[in-house]
Specification:
- Chain B: Pathway: Cofactor biosynthesis; pyrroloquinoline quinone biosynthesis.
- Chain B: Keywords: PQQ biosynthesis.
- Chain B: Pfam families: PqqD (PF05402).
- Chain B: Monomer. Interacts with PqqE.
- Chain B: It comes from Billgrantia antri.
- The complex is a heterodimer of chains A (383) and B (98).
- With 383 residues, chain A is an alpha/beta fold.
- Chain A is built from 15 helices and nine strands.
- A nine-stranded mixed beta sheet of chain A has the order 7-6-5-4-3-2-1-8-9, covered by helices on one side.
- In chain A, helix 1 packs parallel to helix 2 and helix 2 runs parallel beside helix 3.
- In chain B, the strands form two sheets. Chain B has a three-stranded antiparallel beta sheet with strand order 2-3-4, with helices on one face.
- In chain B, helix 2 crosses helix 3.
- Classes of the chains: A alpha/beta (383), B alpha+beta (98).
- Chains A and B meet through loops of A and strand 2, strand 3 and strand 4 of B.
């Protein structure tokens, strides 16, 4: 989501959801240690059917949603992806596929193109196969991803690559950007991993030190100059980790403001991380999307500023950053109504500072990361 | 300073889409994972670009069509608005020309 779509409705009437993220499945051939899926994803058994997804798309579009992402897990695991893309496009959505590239081949790229898919974003784990294999738990994935990135470009799509940065790959940023350049990328998201889901579990092993981060920012700036000199149009978007910011981000443009996620089992969430909050979320199998968006307790809970506590409540910036992220507040303080501790005004900011100090110390080896897979997930399942 | 040539043919950047959104009551420009919410004149101008309607259209055609459509407005003003908007849209990377 970009700044241009910020239409945060703080205190005003609730606006329509403009963004729908369809998490088609939690199944994935990779096991990335920073996955944003819930820790207990293995508890989700019954994915929405094709018909149920089409109904979700139809309802969301009627409410005004226009941007949509097909995500997961790995959305290509669903054999009905092409059907859903075609339906979404017919309804007038701008359709983005957010994928690891695994499960893609020439025939599927062609089928997705024929279905009207607007955009494909492929994730890369690293510049070299060894680091990629260690963090994603798959030795063959890297070469496959590179081949698929080339095929996507050859099919006429802009090549948008997403690289999640963390302490084990951020020092190789120069090589990572060089690889993206060589692949012919049109845009690269250098997204420092944010500490939710599996990433939070592995935080000590993932958060880069401030020194690493500053070096990476300098590397990015140098590449931007070099690319401009060559007249090469490859946009580099560098996303700073929340833990090194002084003010929190306006998470999702505000809770229930413009963004809606539908999880594989039909749970409707204000963002893809919110599922781990100690509250229950409505499900499209029980209620209509419109009722869920406008009337449910879950979607109204953190709308506006009535729920805020100090220091947010009397802060001049509360409508700019909407108090930050509810998930981050909960993960760091145990209280989802707290000010996001990323904020230097938060009484809990010392927790973020402690994490930064930790990150300055020697890194544990990559092998110490807990990989995201069904076996590990069962540990977190309540039933 | 860059200028807009009357014979240039502009079109949306590949993969971008102009669309009328009934729910928002305006045209939007959709692109990978984002959206520009357009005002009336921006929507009207982009809707005249090459690829939006039949036949190839250069800047002079776009201006003439809009002058015909908004006959009450001063023709010179429309031409100036179109040139200014295209310059800005090209600078922002929304549109490209040959």
């Amino acid at each position: 989501m970009t700044d241009r779509t910020h239409t945060t409705a703080v205190n005003g009437a609730t606006g329509a959801p403009l963004w729908l993220l369809a998490e088609l499945t939690y199944r994935c051939p990779l096991q990335c240690a920073y996955c944003s899926n819930p820790l207990d994803f293995a508890a989700v058994k019954e994915e929405l059917s094709t018909e149920e997804w089409i109904d979700v798309l139809t309802q969301a579009r009627a409410m005004g949603a226009v941007q949509m992402g097909f995500s997961g897990g790995e959305p290509l695991v669903r054999r009905d992806l092409e059907t859903l893309v075609a339906e979404a496009r017919r309804l007038g959505f701008y359709t983005n596929l957010i994928t690891s590239g695994l499960g893609l081949d020439e025939a599927r790229i062609e089928a997705l193109h024929a279905a009207g898919l607007d955009h494909i974003q492929i994730s890369l784990q690293a510049s070299d196969p060894d680091v990629a294999a260690a963090v994603a738990g798959s030795p063959k994935a890297h070469a496959k991803k590179l081949a698929m990135a080339r095929s996507v470009k050859a099919a006429g799509y802009p090549m948008v690559l997403n690289v999640v940065l963390h302490r084990h790959n951020i020092d190789r940023l120069d090589e990572i950007i060089a690889l993206c350049d060589e692949l012919g990328a049109d845009a690269v998201e250098l997204a420092n991993c944010q500490m939710y889901g599996w990433a939070h579990l592995n935080r000590e092993g993932l958060l880069p030190s401030r020194e690493q981060l500053e070096t990476a920012e300098a590397t990015t700036a140098r590449w931007r100059e070099r690319l401009a000199e060559r007249g090469r149009d490859m946009r580099l978007l560098f996303v700073v980790p929340d833990y090194y910011a002084e003010r929190p981000k306006a998470c999702m443009g505000g809770w229930g403001a413009i963004f809606m996620t539908v999880a594989p089992d039909g749970a409707v969430l204000p963002c893809h991380s919110a599922r781990m909050l100690p509250m229950s979320f409505p499900n499209v199998r029980d209620r209509g999307l419109r009722e869920i968006w406008y009337d449910s307790e879950a979607f109204n809970r953190y709308r506006g500023d009535g729920w805020m506590r100090e220091p947010c409540r009397s802060c001049d910036e509360r409508h700019q950053d909407v108090g930050g992220c509810r998930c981050q507040a909960y993960l760091l303080t145990g209280d989802a109504t707290a000010t996001d501790p990323v904020c230097s005004l938060s009484p809990d900011h010392h927790r973020v500072e402690a994490a930064r100090r930790e990150a300055g110390a020697a890194a544990a080896p990559m092998e110490a990361l807990t990989l995201r897979n069904v076996h590990e997930s069962r540990v977190f399942c309540r039933t | 300073m860059a200028m807009i040539e009357s014979t240039s043919v502009y079109r949306l950047r590949p993969g971008w889409r102009l669309q009328w959104e009934e729910a928002q009551g305006r045209h939007v420009l959709l692109y990978p994972e984002g959206m520009v919410q357009l005002n009336d004149s921006a929507g009207a101008i982009l809707g005249q670009l090459d690829g939006q309607l039949d036949g190839q259209r250069d800047v002079a055609d776009v201006v003439a069509n809009l002058q015909a459509r908004f006959a009450d407005a001063p023709a010179a003003e429309i031409e100036r608005d179109v040139h200014e908007f295209l310059l800005d849209a090209a600078r922002q990377g929304w549109i490209q020309h040959d």
